[in-house]
Amino acid sequence: MSGRRGGVQRLLQDELGREIPYVHRFNHQLHLVVVHAMSGERAIEDLFNICNVLYTFTRKPIVAAHYQGNTLKRLLEQRWTGHLATVHIILKSFQDIVELLRHVENSASFPADLRMEAAGLLSRILKPSFKFHTQIICKILSLLEPANRMMQSEEMDLQTAVQLVNTAKECVEALRTGKVFTEMWSECAQEREDDIHPGGGGTSCGMSHDNDTGPNGM
Questions:
Q1: Stronger pLDDT, 106 or 35, i.e. the higher one
Q2: R_g (Cα) of the chain, nearest Å
Q3: Are the C-beta atoms of residues 209 and 173 closer than 8 Å to each other?
Q4: Hey, CA dihedral for 200, 201, 205, 211, is it positive or negative?
Q5: Higher pLDDT residue, 137 or 214?
Q6: In whole angstroms, how far apart are CA 179 and each of 56, 57, 186, 193, 214?
Q7: Nearest Cα to Cα of residue 35 among 99, 95, 84, 74
Q8: Averaging pLDDT over each range in 35-39, 121-125, 175-179, 186-190, which range is the top one?
Q9: Burial class (CB in 10 A: 0-12, 13-18, 19+), 154
């Protein structure tokens, strides 16, 4: 820690009587890289903004009483593991969230402003790009999570930490292929049809009224 008075750096400098350079822990460096990368992509920033709105929406007492899914996680800006928990719950309870929003939107027992908010959220999360970006983030952060957890061990040494980071990097790079992209996009598009038309027989994801023909169309 780099606290001026009580941080590890300051305590060691006082004990040894000399300047000691501050070096981030490896898992903290990993955190900084991940947060910086996500904050630099507008589509991902929009994704987490929607996740935050969903969290707030489902926490409202009048809404929470009707929600049957897993409790949504509040996004923790300080830790990317909070981002992982957020997208994991969104994916796990996606159908429950859709059903809740539809119920609120179509029920006259809810205030008009709440029904409008539900309609807006439903429109956003039913776009293939929302599910696509959510799954991408979940996959990437899930690949990094084991390395992050292991690097917090007191027994972790520098050489092993470097190997963990390199292995995690290789796993993420393996996702950067046209085949993986196409498979994930097709899966998200099909799931969208199932969400809109649970009984089957839905139209393709490229419907003109949706204006969402690619992963950047959030």
A1: 106
A2: 21
A3: no
A4: negative
A5: 137
A6: 36, 36, 11, 21, 15
A7: 84
A8: 121-125
A9: exposed
Helical pair 26-39 and 80-92, crossing angle rounded to 10 deg:
60
Task: Fill in the amino acid letter for 6.
Answer: G
In-domain check, residue 11: no
DSSP code string of 58-95: HHSHHHHTT--SPPPPPP-TT-HHHHHHHHHHHHHTHH
At residue 114, the 3 state secondary structure works out as helix
Quick: pLDDT tens for 144-179: 888 888 887 878 887 888 888 889 889 888 888 888
The two tokens of residue 178 are 């046209």
Q: How far apart are CA 214 and CA 54, in angstroms?
A: 23
**Domain coverage including residue 84:** 24-196
Q: Is residue 178 part of a domain?
A: yes
* Number of other CB atoms surrounding residue 161 within 10 Å: 19
Predicted TM-score of the model (pTM): 0.70
The reply to whether 3 falls in a domain is no
Q: What is the mean pLDDT of residues 183-198?
A: 69
CA distance 100 to 192: 16
Does residue 212 fall inside a structural domain?
no
CA pair distance 54, 73, nearest whole angstrom: 10
Count the domains in the chain: 1
